[in-house]
What does this fold into?
Amino acid sequence: MLLYFPKLWVYLYSLIFYNMGFEITGKLIAKYDTIQRTETFKTREFVIETSDNVNGRTINNYVKFQSVQDRTGIVDRFTMGETVKVHFNIKGSKWEKNGQVNYITNLDAWRIESVNLNTAQEQPSDNFTPSAVPPGEVVDDLPF
It folds into this structure.
């Protein structure tokens, strides 16, 4: 049955892909410039600060994310000190040089939302607005 409905495969893949993501909320404290790593690959990093109360003590954590390729601009519309929710995936890779093996873990951000602490409303960071899509039309924004 799935062979006859390729859109169903795309839908099932999107359910799996988006449900495997993580999210965290914190204050945006650093934005770095986009770096062109190769002719076809670019990255950008940013940092958020989160706070946890443990036994009456506040512990601050600083989490650095990277965004890649067409997602490097997702942090542009946010200001320093703004509270944001970051949606991300965890990516790991193995790197070998001069006989040494290293493992690298990246937090790849793919979406950022503004968090209004007064009303607890969130606004997506991408340019999608429901009114821009005609009723009944499916938006296919998968990266393939």
Remarks:
- Confidence is low (pLDDT under 50) at residues 119-123, 127-136.
- Residues 32 and 117 are 25 Å apart (CA to CA).
- The first strand starts at residue 22 and ends at 31.
